């Protein structure tokens, strides 16, 4: 039996990926960056500063710093998440299953802590997670495992006794690199992607989470 479950946030707990994609297009295209919707899809799970730095390296702009551009994107995403409250199907069920099993709950996200806090406030889940960790100020974001290792350390549980629940391949790689057991719930359009075979279990939604998977 696993001792802890660590949730990703964007794309797993909330359907925020469309807002990240829209915000990147809205902010970066006027700067002259030839970014497409597919580009934003391909970087799902990456930290926003890494995405912005990559865009700047390929198409530099002069009107704002990379940090300011990141702040604009984050602010727009936060506004959209709080306005639309895009809770993923099965989230309440998944939390309830975990609580019934008595496992510790943690959160490990590439998003800045400000968005994590705003999301948990919107979901009324501020007291659900014992630990919340962000890759915001780490040297590397996902697919590097540090954010997951930090969550396991904070929970005082060895990674191989923890289950990570992810939606993106980048996040799945991070959890696997941390030596955690993994459950992936990919976006429906990506469900048949063979790269998800590395997960211990793949679900169609959080509604399929059962105690046996732990």
Automatic annotation (TrEMBL):
Keywords: Carbohydrate metabolism, Hydrolase, Magnesium, Metal-binding. Transmembrane segments: none annotated. It comes from the Bacteria. Gene3D superfamilies: HAD superfamily/HAD-like (3.40.50.1000), Putative phosphatase, domain 2 (1.10.150.240). It is an enzyme of class 3 (hydrolase). Belongs to the HAD-like hydrolase superfamily. CbbY/CbbZ/Gph/YieH family. NCBIfam families: HAD-SF-IA-v3 (TIGR01509), PRK10826.1 (NF008087). This is 2-deoxyglucose-6-phosphate phosphatase. It comes from Fuerstiella marisgermanici.
């Amino acid at each position: 039996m696993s001792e802890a479950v660590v949730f990703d946030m964007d794309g797993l707990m909330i359907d925020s990926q469309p807002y990240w994609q829209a915000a990147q297009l809205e902010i970066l295209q006027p700067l002259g960056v030839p970014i497409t919707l597919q580009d934003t899809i391909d970087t799902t799970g990456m930290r926003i500063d890494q995405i912005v730095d990559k865009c700047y390296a390929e198409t530099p702009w002069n009107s704002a710093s990379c940090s300011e551009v990141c702040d604009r994107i984050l602010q727009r995403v936060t506004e959209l998440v709080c306005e639309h409250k895009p809770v993923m199907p099965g989230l309440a069920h998944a939390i309830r299953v975990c609580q019934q099993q008595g496992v510790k709950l943690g959160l490990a996200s590439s998003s800045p802590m400000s968005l994590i806090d705003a999301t948990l406030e919107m979901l009324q889940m501020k007291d659900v997670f014992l630990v919340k960790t962000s890759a915001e100020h780490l040297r590397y974001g996902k697919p590097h495992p540090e954010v997951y290792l930090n969550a396991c350390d904070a929970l005082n549980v060895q990674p191989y006794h923890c289950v990570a629940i992810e939606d993106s391949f980048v996040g799945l790689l991070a959890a696997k690199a941390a030596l955690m057991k993994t459950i992936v719930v990919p976006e429906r359009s990506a469900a048949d992607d063979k790269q998800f075979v590395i997960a211990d279990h793949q679900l169609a939604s959080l509604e399929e989470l059962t105690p046996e998977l732990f």
